[in-house]
Design a protein that fits this description.
CATH architecture: Up-down Bundle
Helix content: over 70%
Order of helices and strands: HEHHHHHHHEHHHHHHHH
Structural class: mainly alpha
Number of strands: 2
Shape: globular
Strand content: under 5%
Oligomer: single chain
CATH topology: Growth Hormone, Chain: A
CATH superfamily: MFS general substrate transporter like domains
């Protein structure tokens, strides 16, 4: 068992690196990051803003929104897990083009058929296609890298998708209030732009990674951090997607003007983006895996604060805390999964599938709780909180087991 003095090792001492096989052109990375931003626009419109649309257009309450979110979670898991086997049969960039075309078609169809039953089917199809694209992009940004460079690229990656997502959700309220069908047309436009961008990206080799020779004491820390982050990652997204479904029905949100409701409900996204900025500028979290356990506890408190305290100011303040905790958990899951697997599509697909599992569990349990206790407005909130509590307990067990001496 390693000594925990490794926690204090500077990054310059914990890696012994061989040069990368070849450098990746900056233009290639810039275009992948741009593609990611466009994908985030569509994903946030049809997987978060859609709940505000359904609430306004069809009068859907929390239970129907939660059921839709849970169904989208199932589609997300299927799409994410399909990414790796598909990438073995089709070149990753060609596969991305096919996915982008598919999402353009689905979004345009949704704009034409504003019927709840048809929309649900189209949304599930969109979610499946969207989930398959993320592992491919995550794998592409890891080409030709070292651990330090990988951390920098992941930071940029996180800043792009979270920043465009926050701006999209903030503007979504105005779009829904003035031109509801615009969320589908804007999604189609974003993915159409992604198709055009992919035509200008030259293929890169599938394997051009550095050979990583980490300090022996760092390996257990990486593995522990990966285990902890991936225990609490599903619960984190259980909170995110349940929150998205519940937010439009909260009295604090309903008391606001329709055009600013999504802005008020998306403060946590801004906080998460700021957290990504901080994490990208620091490396302390690379060697402190138990910070993830603290983040999960903070996440639970913040979720309850956002949803149960009937105050606009309290909701905003708790969302700031919520976003910071989410940022650390997500960054750790993606970084340690990629650095331990050399950026493989399979590991990235597993990361995305865990997100889908959270999307199933949170909204699904919330909908079930509201069905069992329809008169209790807090039933769905407490059910989601219970999922997060169980994940915290599981993470505590794993953390304590890592301290046990080898026999």
């Amino acid at each position: 068992m390693p000594t925990w003095s490794a926690l204090e090792l500077p990054l310059s001492d914990v890696f012994a690196l061989k040069p990368a096989i070849r450098l990746v052109p900056r233009r290639f990375l810039a275009r992948i990051f741009t593609l990611e931003g466009l994908a985030s626009v569509g994903g946030n419109l049809l997987m978060y803003g859609i709940f505000f649309y359904m609430h306004k257009r069809f009068g859907w309450g929390a239970r129907k929104n939660l059921l839709l979110s849970s169904a989208e979670g199932m589609a997300y898991v299927i799409g994410a897990l399909a990414a790796n086997p598909l990438s073995h049969r089709i070149d990753r960039q060609k596969l991305l083009r096919l996915l982008e075309i598919g999402m353009v078609i689905v979004a345009l169809a949704a704009a034409c058929f504003a019927i709840p039953q048809v929309l649900v089917i189209l949304l599930l199809g969109y979610t499946m296609l969207s989930a398959a694209q993320w592992p491919l992009m995550e794998s592409l940004i890891s080409v030709g890298t070292t651990p330090a460079e990988l951390s920098r690229r992941i930071s940029i990656y996180n800043l792009v998708w979270s920043g465009t997502g926050a701006m999209t959700v903030a503007a979504c309220g105005v779009l829904i209030a003035r031109f509801p069908q615009g969320i589908f047309l804007a999604t189609a436009a974003a993915h159409l732009a992604g198709c055009a961008l992919l035509l200008r990206i030259h293929p890169q080799p599938d394997r051009a990674h550095a050979q990583l020779l980490p300090h022996p004491e760092l390996i257990p820390l990486r593995k522990l951090a990966k285990r902890l982050s991936r225990i609490v990652l599903p619960a984190t997204f259980a909170v995110i997607y349940a929150l998205g479904a519940i937010m439009p029905t909260l009295p604090v949100i309903q008391s606001a003007h329709p055009e600013v409701r999504t802005l008020l409900a998306g403060v946590w996204m801004i906080a998460r983006w700021l957290c990504f900025v901080f994490l990208g500028a620091t490396s302390w979290w690379h060697t402190r895996p138990r910070a993830l356990l603290a983040a999960a506890v903070i996440l639970l408190a913040a979720f309850l604060g956002v949803t149960l305290i009937p105050s606009v100011l309290a909701m905003i303040l708790w969302q700031l805390v919520l976003g910071a905790a989410m940022g650390l958990i997500y960054s750790a899951s993606l970084y340690f999964g990629m650095v331990l697997s050399d950026g493989s599509t399979a590991q990235n697909a597993y990361h995305e599938a865990l997100i889908g599992v959270g999307c199933i569990l949170g909204p699904g349990c919330g909908a079930l709780a509201s069905q069992i206790r329809p008169a209790d407005p807090h039933a769905s909130i407490l059910a989601v909180a219970a999922i997060l509590w169980i994940s915290i307990m599981a993470a505590c067990v794993v953390s304590l087991q890592s301290h046990r001496p080898a026999t």
